[in-house]
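Sequence in, structure out. Go.
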Amino acid sequence: MEKRELSLDILKIIATNFIMFAHYQQFTDTFFMNGINFFNGVFEFNQMVELFFLISGILAYNSMKKVNPGGGVHFWPFYLHKMLRLLPMTAIAYFAFQICIYGYYKLAHGQYWPMPYSHILSPWRLILEIGGLSTGWVFCHGAIFPTWYISTLLFCYCIYYFVEWASKKINGNVNVLLSIAILVGIAAWEYKWSIPFFNVWTGRGMYCFFWGVIFAKYFYYNQSFNLRTFEKAICFFMISGYALGYSKIASAYGNRYFLTFMIFSAILLLLKPLNYFQSRVISCLANVSYEVFVFHFAFIALWIDLSYVVDISIHSVNSMLLMTTSVWIVAFPLHYFCEPRLRQFVLNRVNICFGKGK
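Output:
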């Protein structure tokens, strides 16, 4: 079995579920009077997307050493590999979502799904969505939230490749370029940039992703770095204090940055010893979590559609958990059966287009 980072797998599974819960409450307009609210609660769990970008940056650092820009894999094969991993399932999820919101339009007597651009299905829009170009590359926002994440993630991969390539060509310090990428991301988010390639969405992804790269280099994959007992205690009390209410104080000074640079980083360091262990079950769930993430919006829309034709209450914990379980169940055959075949089909078509196949 391929060596995996158990701590990252666990966090991916947890973050995927929390984001699903937050989106479910947001778009079903659900609020729990007695219980944890994942949307409009004490903590906004949709900020777990920052953790996704951070983890992606950590994993990108490890894989980029094999790519070796400027002396190894060229850009287009590198980018094609990323596209084949991310976009085929995203395209299927996008079509599934469009079918569900068309059902919503019919069942809700002509009302559109309450999300910008969700009802716009033009050829140009379709190309942007399934091509991973919906956010950042141009000035529109993804019709389903996962598509903005995928688009921004692909953008970060491109920037990272050329940062590594440029640092070798000019014999410069890659850490300076990575730090500049983080500062550009913060500036784009804070000042609400809206220029080609750099806006609030790419900014949100960039500072997390490139902090993940630096964090991986000097902390996560650095064999000589290990937390001492005192440092572990500081991390533990900082996380506990944040969870117990100090997030209100942190929000006054930039909650997203405190989360990314302090809380999420501390959690990763505390869980790092788990990487000495392996779990087939957790690894399997982590593999499937990508399909869960990109398809969960289609399931939320489907759940709302069902509430028009079946006597069910969607404003309950049980309904939210049932929908979440349904997404995970469907995601397994999507990942292990559909994705590899769809990816190979797309790769064959690409090879034929470029004269590399029959």
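Check: Residues 6-353 form one domain. Residues 317-353 form the longest helix (37 residues).
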